[in-house]
Amino acid sequence: MATYDYPDDLLTAQQDLTQVRADLAALITALPYSVEPMEAWQRPDGCWQSTPRSYPDSPGWSEQEQKDVTALRDKERDLATAIVTHDFWNHVAQAELSEARSQLKHALGREDGEGRKEQ
Fold it and tell me: Is 89 among the domain residues?
């Protein structure tokens, strides 16, 4: 398997993207299930699953919570775009692109330290 010498800005963008995705997932998990206020409801028997499931009242998301989610989603999109369109990929053989992009996602966590950014 080939290894790649990723540029620091690409590694930083990938590291930032991983963090933004974790922050977004944590935020959405902590928020009410419905963006808009919604009364409690119960899924009928046999609908998607064999057991009923109840949902409590949802106060909805505050304006600030909606802005926070939007900001994280925008940042996620911008970072993903920066990674995918980075000039580094022009120097990787077409047949190796998929593997190189996959390795980038794990470059900062490798035990041998290769690809790891010095702090």
Answer: yes
* Residue 76 structural domain: 8-33+62-109
> Does 101 reside within a domain?
yes
Nearest Cα to Cα of residue 10 among 99, 71, 112, 79? 79
Annotate 18-36 with DSSP letters as a single string: HHHHHHHHHHHHHS-S-SS
Number of domains forming the structure of the chain: 1
- 69-118 pLDDT, tens digit per residue, is 999 999 999 999 999 999 999 999 999 999 999 999 988 875 444 444 44
Over the stretch 11-44, which tens digit does the pLDDT of each residue have?
Answer: 999 999 999 999 999 999 999 999 999 999 888 7
